[in-house]
Amino acid sequence: MPSTEEAVKLARSIAGERLAACAQMVGPIRSVYWWQGEIKDAQEWQLLIKTTAALFPALEAHIKANHSYDTPEIIATPIVAGSAEYFAWISAETRRTDASS
Q1: 100 inside domain
Q2: Is 98 part of any domain?
Q3: pLDDT tens column, 36-71
Q4: 83 burial class (0-12, 13-18, 19+ CB within 10 angstroms)?
C-alpha cells in the first residue's frame, strides 16, 4: 500500500468484517518492481493477515474491492506448524456473526 493511512484503513476493515483475526502492518518497505513496462521504485506498507483457508476467497475479494492498486499483492503461504492455542484464537476471532456476514 502506498501509505500508512491506507494500510490502517484496510487492516481495520478486514478485522472489522472478521475476515481475519489480525492484520499487522510492516513498513515502510522499499519495493523495486516492474509495472506497465517500466521499473518502479516505491515506498510501501505490507499487511500480514492472519485468517483461515476457508475465508481466503472472501478476504481476497475484500482486498481487491478496497485497495488502491490495480494488482495488489495477495498471496497465501502455508503454515506448517504452530501452537494449537494460536490457531484456536484465529478460528474463534474469524467466526462471522449474522451482523458481519
Answers
A1: no
A2: no
A3: 999 999 999 999 999 999 999 999 999 999 999 999
A4: exposed
